[in-house]
Amino acid sequence: MANSTSQNAMYVMNNINAILYGVVLVLYFRVLRYMFSSSKKWTPMDKFMMAFSTVLVLLNTIFWTTQSYFGEMMWIVHSDYPGGADAYWIDFGSVWYQTWGMAACVVCNLLNDAFLVYRCFVIWNSRRIILFPSTLWLASLAFSIGLLYESGRPDGNYFAGIATIFVTAYTASTFAFNVVVTSLIIGRILYIGRRLAFANEFKVYIGAVAIVIESALPFTVFSAAYLVTYAMGSDISIGFSFYAMFTCISPLLITLRVLSRRAWTRDSSNLFTTTISYTGATDFVTNMGAQPGDYDVEKDTTSKVPDLEAGRPDSEGLDTHAIRSVVSLPDSSPV
């Protein structure tokens, strides 16, 4: 597969990766700023997200540097290699640092997918909903082991032989996983948003930004482009390999929402689920006793905040201060 088209595609991919790595660093330093400049006490989730983000950035750094280094060795250091860059690619495509970088990328992808399973569980607040995505994740894990072995062994080639079967199977299972999880998350957010009439009060949870970030939509879109071109045997598939950078960017974006208290939590999911208790002759009935037509986010919120544990509120209608106290709605508009 090494030819002028693939060489150009790899060159473009390396440049896009460099730009996206800059995005990774900016997002990571924003995470550090949130963690160390905030006067708020760190929660266990904050600590986990900090450690998780650090691991992803380190893995992404390994992937990016090995790809860039291989390009330097192929195009500059060994520019006079017999047979040119194409021959160098064929002879050294499975060099140890290339395998190392590929392994870092695969592990980063698997960690990102596992994190998306958790986010799907949080948004749906149901273990049953993640059974199928978890099965797809296990399939991706199995295929990734075969991919790394076949492409990293002596004389192995990522683009030739049995390795291509594992690459296609791994990419397809990963893509299927992301389509399923992304659809579940987007569907859930849209459903909640429609039932809440996409009120501005809850835009931070059900707006367009929430849909794109919470569902890791960019990764799904670009991985689809890579899978299609790779399955077709097109050399330009290498150019779409930059989708791997989103295995780090997407979790970092979610981390920023978690730290800024804009992300979905199990508390907010529980509240929205019980607020929209059923559909039928009524629009919805809340766990606080609001009747159809009572829900209006524009109502006067200076009334007494109802007791969330009581069967009915002290005042008529749904008081948005109560919701704000449970889900910690930020006062500023979402970024």
Describe the structure.
This protein has 12 helices and no strands. With 335 residues, the chain is mostly helical. Helix 1 (4-37) packs parallel to helix 10. The longest helix has 34 residues, at 4-37.
Number of strands: 0
Q: Helical residue percent?
A: 55-70%
How do the SSEs run, as a string of H and E?
A: HHHHHHHHHHHH
Radius of gyration in whole Å, from Cα?
24 Å
Class of secondary structure makeup: mainly alpha
Major sheet details: none
Give the rounded overall mean pLDDT.
75
What proportion of the residues form beta strands (DSSP E)? under 5%
Provide the low-confidence segments as ranges.
276-335
Task: Tally the helices.
Answer: 12
Query: What would you call the shape?
Result: globular
Distance between the termini: 43 Å
Describe this protein with a few key phrases.
single chain; 335 residues; mainly alpha; 12 helices; 0% strand; disordered C terminus
Short description:
This protein has 335 residues and is an all-alpha fold. It is built from twelve helices and no strands.
How would you summarize the topology of this molecule?
Elements (H helix, E strand, L loop, with lengths): L3 H34 L6 H34 L6 H9 L3 H29 L6 H22 L10 H33 L7 H4 L1 H7 L2 H15 L14 H14 L6 H10 L44 H8 L8
Helix pairs in contact: 1-2, 1-10, 2-4, 2-10, 4-5, 4-6, 4-10, 5-6, 6-8, 6-9
